[in-house]
C-alpha cells in the first residue's frame, strides 16, 4: 500500500510541475499579447490576451487543486481532497465561459465599426503567442487524461493555440486585402471556439460533483 501511495503522490507532484511550468509560459504570453494589442490596436490580440488572463486564473486554481489533492484523508473528509481537482476544473470552465461571452460581444461591436490595426505587429505577436501555446501543449500532453483538472488545463491551452491561429489568419487577411473587419471576425471565432467545449466540460464536472461518492 505504501508503494502505491508513494507512486500516486509522485504522479500528482509531476502534474503540479507541469501546471506550474505552463502557468509561467501563459503569464509570459499574456504580457506579450497585451503589449501587442496596445501597439497594434488589434481586438483579436486583446481577446486572446483576455483569454490568457482567464487561463492564468484557471491554471492557478488547477495548481492549487493539485496541491490540495495530495493532502491525506481526515475523519471529516474521508475521501481526502481529491474532489478539489474536480472543483478546480469546474472553476476553470466557468471562467472560460465568461471570457467567451465577453469576446463575442466585443467582436460584434467591432464588426460594425472596425478600426485600423497594425497587421504586421499582429503577425509578430501572434507567432509569439502560438509558440508559447505549442510549448504548453507539449508539456501537458502526456498528463491530459490523468484527471478532469489536467484535462481542463490542456483544453485551455488548446483554445489559446486556436486563438493564436485566428489572430495570424486575420493579420494575413488585413495585410493582403486591407479588410479590417477580419480582426473582429477572428475575435468572434475565438469566442465560438471557447464556449461549446467549455459548456461540455462544465457539464461533466457538475455531474461528478453531484454524485454521492467519487
TrEMBL record:
SUPFAM superfamilies linked: Cation efflux protein transmembrane domain-like
TM regions (residue ranges): 21-43, 49-69, 81-105, 117-141, 153-173, 179-196
Primary localisation category: membrane
Keyword Transcription listed: no
Alphabetized InterPro entries for the sequence: Cation_efflux, Cation_efflux_TM, Cation_efflux_TMD_sf, CDF/SLC30A
Claim: Cell inner membrane is one of the keywords in the record: no
Family matches, as Pfam families: Cation_efflux
Compartments it resides in: Membrane
Keywords on record: Membrane, Transmembrane, Transmembrane helix
Membrane topology: Multi-pass membrane protein
Cation efflux protein transmembrane domain segment(s): 21-210
Record-given protein name: Cation efflux protein transmembrane domain-containing protein
Organism: Nostocoides vanveenii
Taxonomy of the source species: Bacteria, Bacillati, Actinomycetota, Actinomycetes, Micrococcales
